[in-house]
């Protein structure tokens, strides 16, 4: 019998999450029965979606939702032998007994010199998000100019690098000078700190006086309205995230974007990365190939210790991370 730990959400977050909204609990897990496995978390992901999803996908007292890379430590399922690794959507748990539903084996021939944690980042959900936003929604073409915000994060950093592979000009905004330096290292043509520029409008105009063909939107809120003004006519916008509003306790009000969408004849589409599951296998292979060739570089913001999950989650929402925020158990 295994003694497991889990983080529960004691009460719905009121604005920005607080340490007291979480509680660490222990439980004894039963032995796996036929078809089941016992998983031990190795890396856990902290992602922005957990904040809005907590409102409608969780009730008070539930285990925090989320994905992890886990090792199979007991198995009564031949498809998942002891010692193999999986990506599992089983929440903030140190150990889990479950059947195979929702378990994704780590892709075949995962290179030994590449950390399995990348299965939660560049070669996982955030990487898929970057590819699908660029290819399925924006249909980004060589020579175009792309704007991406939250650009030094898990999704944004991959977005910018793939856009460079596709022969585009890339402008990225991020919330610290260290992040801006990182974006320049990654090959972004222009990067700026949106917290210290005098005017976002001027920064966007200076970065690309001719405007933007495509905008990969991770942030939302008032900065989005400013960015829309800088789109070229017939520009395309992929609405991937809205992180600047996730902790709001009251809805934000205008200025509303309809007039600029109308006058510039913009095309704006929201998307969730899970729309193209049939493409995941091929896309993950492509992401892994780019990583191995050094064309897509990966950085992780690693917090050690399962007990530090709430701190890492709150830190990510405050912008502490460069690259993918993960927990190493
Ligand atoms: N549609 C989908 O299927 C999908 C999938 C994955 C992620 N997403 C979305 O994509 C976005 C990025 O996710 P990620 O996993 O890559 O996270 P991330 O960028 O690694 O981390 C979140 C970052 O958001 C920025 N941020 C936080 N509050 C902000 C604010 N008020 N204004 C501007 N920026 C703020 C911070 O960077 P700065 O220091 O630069 O502010 C922080 O580091 C999120 O909106 C997320 O919800 C969508």
UniProtKB/TrEMBL annotation:
SMART domains: PKS_ER. Its EC number is 1.3.1.48, 1.3.1.74. It is found in: Cytoplasm. This is Prostaglandin reductase 1. It catalyses: octanal + NADP(+) = (2E)-octenal + NADPH + H(+); (5S,12S)-dihydroxy-(6E,10E,12E,14Z)-eicosatetraenoate + NADP(+) = 12-oxo-(5S)-hydroxy-(6E,8E,10E,14Z)-eicosatetraenoate + NADPH + H(+); pentan-2-one + NADP(+) = (E)-pent-3-en-2-one + NADPH + H(+); nonan-2-one + NADP(+) = (3E)-nonen-2-one + NADPH + H(+). Belongs to the NADP-dependent oxidoreductase L4BD family. One of its GO terms (cellular component) is cytoplasm. It comes from the Eukaryota. Keywords: Acetylation, Cytoplasm, Fatty acid metabolism, Hydroxylation, Lipid metabolism, NADP, Oxidoreductase, Phosphoprotein, Prostaglandin metabolism. Monomer or homodimer.
